[in-house]
Amino acid sequence: MTEPPRGAAERVAYLIRLVAAGPHRFSLGELAARAELPPSTVHRLLKVLLDCGFVERGSGQSYRPGRELYRTASQLIARFDLTRSARPFLEMLVAEWQETAVLCAYSPPGRCGIIADVVSTPHLLRFAVEKGGEVALPWGSLGRAILAFLPTGEGEILLREAGDGPLTGRPRPTRAELEADLARIRKEGTARYFDPRHDIAGIAAPIFGAEKEMLGCIGVTMPSARYRLHEEDDLAAAVRAAAIRISELAAISYS
Q1: DSSP state of 122
Q2: CA distance 224 to 127
Q3: Domain ranges for the chain
């Protein structure tokens, strides 16, 4: 687990994320253990969340997410729900190409992608993709479709920290090779990945918000053995068209 934040404001935000992602009811001790913070500190921060309605008292000594937290979240979702908006496009890609379609959301705090939704191929031979899994940005079509369009500072940090492939152990490419591929992705609008040694392949395209901020990407992934059976450029065009349409929906939602 990453080291918990030290500043008071950062710790409040940290607890909100833990409450939102955790069980419906929890005790002070359980939240303190998840946060890796002293119970006395968590008790003080919970008082702040109680006062603003983000946390409420449950039965006994338990707590639960507050109605104000739900209301705030619903306001954002009402504007634009990336997962819900992308779902028809995932289903469309699978129906047309018979390969697994994936929605990956960008997490700025974690500097990684998070698998937000998956529609699996009907083929029995498939590359397993699990919702909630992390995607290392320097690797694969999903990761590089995001990395190529990040602001320079964020991208530079990731390029410096890039290690070997998390799934394959494959040595990372040289800095020059990676930068050349990212430049190609920015030019073409899609990231392509083909690794026959580890039987992984895919194509992905970036999704942007109303102010051109990075939201994530949509992609199609498959065993490399089936990759060459498809018209690669046509598949790339279909993935990019889906990403553009989702980006347009995001822009409309915030206009």
Answers
A1: S
A2: 10
A3: 8-75, 80-253
Assigned CATH topology for domain 8-75:
Arc Repressor Mutant, subunit A (1.10.10)
**CATH superfamily, with its number, for domain 80-253:** GAF domain (3.30.450.40)
Residues 219-238 have pLDDT tens digits of 999 988 888 778 889 999 99
* CB distance 215 to 208 below 8 Å: yes
Instruction: Tell me the residue type at 217.
Output: C
CA–CA–CA angle 14, 18, 23 (5° rounding): 165
On the question of pLDDT at 63 being above 90, the answer is: yes
Strand runs labelled E in 136-208: 191-195, 200-208
What average pLDDT score do residues 44-48 get? Answer: 94
Give CA–CA dist 253/255, Å, rounded. 6
H-helix or E-strand spanning residue 64: strand 62-65
pLDDT at position 216 is: 93
pLDDT band at 77 (very low <50, low <70, confident <90, very high): low
Rounded Cα gap, residues 229 and 4, in angstroms: 47
